[in-house]
Amino acid sequence: MSAAGWSGRTAVECAAALRSGEVTATGLLASARGRRDAVDGRLGAFLARTDDLAERAAAAADERLAREGMAAPPLCGIPMAVKDVMCIEGVETTAGSRILSGFRPPYTATAVGRLLDAGAVVIGKTNCDEFAMGSSNENSAFGPVGNPWDLERVPGGSSGGSAAAVGAQIVPLALGSDTGGSIRQPASLCGVVGFKPTYGRVSRHGLIAFASSLDQIGPFAHCVEDAALVYECIGGHDPLDSTSAPDAVGDVRAELGRGVAGLRLGVPREYFAAGLDDGVRRCVEVAIETLRGQGALIEEVSLPSTAAALSAYYIVAPAECSSNLARYDGVRYGRRVASPSLQQSYLRTRDEGFGAEVKRRVMLGTYALSSGYYDAYYRKAQKVRTVIAREFAEVFTRVDALVAPTSPTAAFPIGERSDPLSMYLCDALTIPVNLAGLPGVSVPCGLVDGLPAGLQVIAPRMADALALRVAASYEAVTDWHSRRAPLGVAA
Amino acid sequence: MQLSPEDVAHVALLARLGLSEAEQERLRAELEAILDHIKALDAVGIEGVGETAQVTGLVNVWRADEPRPSLDAAAALGNAPEADGAHFVVGAIQE
To answer: Which of A270, A214, A208 is nearest to A385 (CA)?
Structure first.
């Protein structure tokens, strides 16, 4: 098969071909690079290319596959992309921000390190909203990313580059991070699978912090099994992250084929409220009927405080970000605007280094934490967070998992949502999951005027395998995940 | 929620953001709109409800108090805008 023939294939297919001798890791890398170099000028998914690293990794993977054969890790030799919020030693890591231009981390994030140890071949760092703050990738300091289904529309965010890199069939796998929907929402908009594990399942060591109690790393892929492969590799305890869950991840892929017969799946009525696009609603309703046809017991449920989750998030996340981003002071790393005094240097460095959305959130968070407003905003938001988590816990005493839309709309045109509040509403259906620390996966479930819609599966804490199992069951009898983006402009 | 220009200037200083006057005025209007939306919090009954700061269920995660390797000075200083080989160099603290 020609090198170009590997574009759009799943990681599982590539892994089998590597073992049958049909292709080499070096050949897969050539295919991925060829595709990247052919389309990324229009797409803008990559911020950095790591070709030297990738060439060495592919050569090592070929040696390892020759030596270990079937015993080699499943991801050995598979090309991947990594969102530019995760550190790779010596590779420029910017988080989409001018303030980190030129930053070369002295260590590698645990999640990325585990992939490299398994023989994965990282071909580059992907574009994202600055410090992962955004829902359209338009907040990147280094330019927007096109949606592979319509290059004039957004890919979603904040992990827009990773979603687009998989959607555009450059790489079969990519890593993203999800603080309020930043994996699931772009996955939905780009027609790929995106999985946010339970908070604590994947180490945050080496992930540039946005909101530490919400941030979680996870995969983008063409199918659920591929996402599970990545999750099995990167998940599990890490002593370098004190919020890392001690529980083993287990054999997730063994669960995927068990189907949904007899499972109770809740449909939260608040997730179908005003603001949900009619086309997306129809896709999700058909998907739910598909699951019913597979033997799932479908039941309407209520999560009454869903509407308040967005408000709680826009206190909690900015508060944490205002604290986390205090480290960008122009002293130890990153950009510095030299000034006569240290105070002036802080003020100028941060003014020139941060973009508009980051400043907005730092201001909002600083306000919510400031003397006189802490109780009215931050403390109240933390209490509402408790209520949100309790409502999920209560519902999960009656149903095994929840099914709902991922994003209320399909991809919108670049530049359409200039008002911050309208942008925040993109994540209304994904944010509650982060507040409660639950696992959530988005799988393609239809096209609305040629643009992808996503079905979101939400499971109880630590029931990551169950969320993936429901998604895999749906995927087994539908072909939306097999549709590949045209990389043009929709009619 | 009404914010005065002084409120915005105060918060900007707390956040060490040297914003222009035009930027402060734009942010004042945007923050007012966002804070109005955030009033949705008031619709949730939180009487007697505790606060959630994290959701792991983990408490007091410590590592053994034993020395272990860490970055050497050259690596730690490698990204500094200004360093003298052993220290980060900063401007005067007092004006």
So the answer is: A214
Task: Express each pLDDT in A405-422 by its tens digit.
Answer: 999 999 999 999 999 999
Residue located via tokens 């930027």:
B23
Residue B76 CA to residue B73 CA, distance in Å, equals: 5
Question: With 60 as the cut, is the pLDDT of residue B60 above it?
Answer: yes
Confidence of residue A490 (pLDDT cuts 50, 70, 90): low
Quote the tokens at residue A8: 């759009």
CA distances from A307 to A40, A98, A204, A311 (A): 38, 34, 28, 8
**Window A:222-261, CB contacts with B under 8 Å:** 239, 242-243, 245-246
How confident is residue A1, by pLDDT bands cut at 50, 70 and 90?
very low
Q: Tokens 């999960």 map to which residue?
A: A396
* Residue A481 contacts residue A298 (beta carbons within 8 Å): no
Per-residue pLDDT, A29: 98
ipTM over 0.90: yes
* A158: preceding bond cis by omega (within 30 degrees): yes
Nearest to B78 among A106, A199, A308 (CB): A106
Cβ within 8 Å, pair B38-A311: yes
| Interatomic CA distance for residues A293 and A275, integer angstroms | 28
**DSSP structure string for A65-97:** HHHHGGGS-TTTT-EEEEETTB-BTTB---TT-
CA atoms within 13 A on the CB side of B91: 18
**Residue A348: its chain B contacts at CB < 8 A?**
18
Q: How far apart are CA A147 and CA A45, in angstroms?
A: 9
Tell which residue, A159, A90, A171, has the closest CA to residue A127.
A159
CB-CB contact of A282 with A405 (8 Å): no
Closest residue in A to B79 (Cα–Cα): A333
Angle at A202 between CA A17 and CA A401, to 5 degrees: 90
Share of chain A above pLDDT 90, in %: 97
> Are the Cβ atoms of A379 and B8 closer than 8 angstroms?
no
Strand, helix or coil at A275? coil
Mean pLDDT of A345-373: 97
